[in-house]
Amino acid sequence: MKRSKSFFVRFLLKFAMDYLPEKIHSMILFLRSFKKFKKEINKSKSNIKFSNNLDEINQHEYKITSQNNEDGIIEYIFKKIPNNKYFVEIGFDLYECNTLNLIKNGWNGKLMDQNIEECLALKTLLKHFFPNSKTIISNEKIDISNINDVVFSDLDKKTIDFFSIDIDGNDYWVLKNIDLERVNVICCEYNHWVGNNVKKVMPYNSEHQFKNDVFFGASLLAMYDLLHSKGFDLVAVDSSGTNAFFVKKEFAKYFEILSPIKSWRSVVRFHSESQAKEMRESVKKFKFVEL
Asked: In the chain, what are the helix, strand and coil shares in percent, each to the nearest 5?
């Protein structure tokens, strides 16, 4: 029964996308997502930590609508940094993203993703649950050629207080090519599978599609060297070993500055030990660039 229902839903959504007006397609997506979205945005805080070798900032972690414990780190950072409550997030999940809790707390900004149905659904959900939000949802595939136009084209001189990127592939190259002069805080995913004291990055490929394997992004040390050269310091690595947070040097005095080697984490809570070992071994099969 579940398989049939799943097939029917997929068929219905495909039909709606191909043959029905966008408003009707959006309404179908809204109805499909409404109950779960409402539940997610009204959840209580979860304070589960995923590793033991923690820095002081990790004590402030919690999760409401982020994938891991990013919500708490974000709140802690912006209690210390003056801001205009403006964000840009590239790559999001409908029910788990780094800025949904910010929207709940009056922030505005841009959310971008290449999945058209995620974008259509979130537009209708935000309009219903947060009617005063001025957040813009854009269906965009981001690469090094369009990143600056897409992010800054209509910002005038506005500062991006919080910039989050998670595109499961060319994250390093996009960060290398974006103008970060008007960005204060960056959250970026790093590839923990490739190891600790290494500088490795996936070669740039505008057609890359993440296949739920280890071939994506860059090591934490590679990300650190890139963003440090652009005027940012590392202030947090979430306890799940997924995201690193960097602040512009002028705000670094408010935080403990971390070492990318000492604060690196690799947590495999979704895998057995044998699966994790196999995935680490599989890194050798892929052609990462050594920096």
From this structure: 40, 15, 45
The strand pair at 108-113 and 183-189 is best described as: unpaired
Ordered by where they begin, the domains of the chain are: 46-290 (3.40.50.150)
Alpha carbon dihedral 214, 290, 185, 120, in 10-degree steps, equals -40
> What Cα–Cα distance (Å) separates residue 270 from each residue in 68, 210, 265, 266, 276?
12, 17, 15, 12, 9
Q: Which tens digit of pLDDT belongs to each residue from 55-82?
A: 999 999 999 999 999 999 999 999 999 9
**Residue 19 CB neighbour total at 10 angstroms:** 9
Strands 232-237 and 200-201, how do they pair?
unpaired
Structural element, H or E, at residue 147: helix 147-152
DSSP string, 82-125: ---SEEEEES--SS--TTHHHHHTT-EEEEEES-HHHHHHHHHH
* Integer CA distances (angstroms), 197 to 194, 235, 287, 291, in order: 9, 18, 18, 12
Question: Cα separation of 105 and 85, whole Å?
Answer: 9
DSSP string, 158-193: --EEEEEE--SSSHHHHHHHS--TTEEEEEEE--GG
Both structure tokens of 250: 């002028």
Residue 6: pLDDT over 70? no
Give the DSSP H or E segment for 36: helix 22-41
Each residue of 201-247: pLDDT tens digit?
999 999 999 998 999 999 999 999 999 999 999 999 999 999 999 99
Q: Which two tokens stand for residue 249?
A: 């040097």
Report yes or no: 34 and 26 within 8 Å, Cβ to Cβ: no
